[in-house]
Amino acid sequence: MSRCQGVRMQPGAAGTTAGRQLDGAAVPALSLRGVGKCFASRAGAVAALRGIDLTVERGRFVTVIGPSGCGKSTLLRIVAGLVRADEGQVAIFGDTPDVACADKHVGFVPQRPALLPWRTVLDNVRLPLQVNKAASARRTLSREPEEILRAVGLADVLDRHPGELSGGMQQRVAIARAFAFEPSILLMDEPFSSLDEMTREVLRAELLGLWQGQQTTVLFVTHSVAEAIVLSDAVVVMAGPPGTIQAVVPVGLERPRRDLVELTDDYRELEREVRLQLRGAWASRSDGT
After folding, report:
1. What pairing do the DSSP bridges indicate for beta strands 44-56 and 7-8?
2. What is the rounded distance in angstroms from the CA atom of residue 243 to the CA atom of residue 251?
3. Which are the contacts of 48, defined by CB distance < 8 A and separation ≥ 6?
4. pTM reported for the whole predicted model
5. Close Cβ partners of 5 (under 8 Å, ≥ 6 residues apart)
6. pLDDT value at position 43?
7. What's the pLDDT tens digit per position in 214-235?
8. Residue 225 and residue 151: Cα distance in Å, rounded?
9. Contact 256, 211 (CB under 8 A)
10. pLDDT at 8
């Protein structure tokens, strides 16, 4: 299996290095060093994340997978600036999450679409361009919202409202909205978790099509091994709680991904590796290590 380009653990982190710096780029898209987070409870402080060290280079699609409760969503929310880390450093293109978000470098797609019910499909997708107009004015966009909506099969529903759409169509709108302002890094928290498998497959293909057109850096959380492999350049396997990085599995499948790549021997080898790492994550959870 080839080494993963553009995703690596920091020196001293658990596991093995899974990549290298790309093209001599001095500033990666995302750098996490010693990130930790605790939450208060009646029983005292509960550690959600501990010692997270990870670097993601520009233009990479990286998926985070692991057992429920291992801190995947917490990690994503820390990168998004929605939750503050208690220790360690988080840098997005060299800036803090607050600065990166203020400059509209960060897009976020939550588990639920979070569309505004009184706005049409097109107006929901235009919304990020109408918020923080000073930052928007500094950006030159390559595609109009209408073009992105066409790319995800929504050209015929631009004037409809979210309540008139199926769950899959609403999630398409949320993804189109995130890509509309062309963020430098896109954070996606299990966006397909509530959809049936056939709809998930279609949306995965549409997501890859959008991503390949923009080459935005993506950090994507999922519980699906198939989704992680098909989408990604690398799969970050987490263990916990508290959340730690168990391993980074390189995904060397050719891009653009071929149809039914899940039936190939290379895919099956990757699936075996990811599942073995997930078993290790479960074992460390059971052992309390």
Report:
1. antiparallel
2. 22
3. 37, 38, 39, 71, 74, 241, 242, 243
4. 0.86
5. 19, 20, 22, 57, 60, 233
6. 81
7. 889 999 999 999 999 999 999 9
8. 26
9. no
10. 58
Q: Is the pLDDT of residue 70 over 60?
A: yes
Question: Residue 30, Cβ neighbours under 10 Å: how many?
Answer: 24
> Inter-axis angle of helices 167-180 and 121-130, to 10 degrees?
30
Here the tokens at position 32 are: 């996490």
CATH number of 7-105+183-287: 3.40.50.300
| CA–centroid distance for 148 within its chain | 19
Buried b / exposed e along 46-74 (16+ C-beta atoms within 10 A): ebbbbbbbbbbbbbbbbbbbbbeebbbbb
Torsion of CA 100, 182, 186, 105, to 10 degrees: 0
**Residue pLDDT, tens place only, 172-221:** 999 999 998 889 999 999 999 888 888 888 889 899 989 988 889 999 99
Q: What is the per-residue pLDDT across 14-51, written as a single tens digit (0 to 9) for each? A: 333 333 333 435 789 999 999 999 998 888 888 999 99
User: DSSP secondary-structure letter at 227?
Assistant: H
Angstrom CA distances, 276 to 61, 205, 243, 247, 273, stand at 21, 26, 18, 10, 5
229: its two tokens: 């492999």
Each domain of the chain, given as residue ranges in start order, spans 7-105+183-287, 112-182
The CA-CA-CA angle for residues 157, 159, 165, to 5°, reads 50
Residue 12's pLDDT band (cuts 50, 70, 90): very low
DSSP code for 2:
P
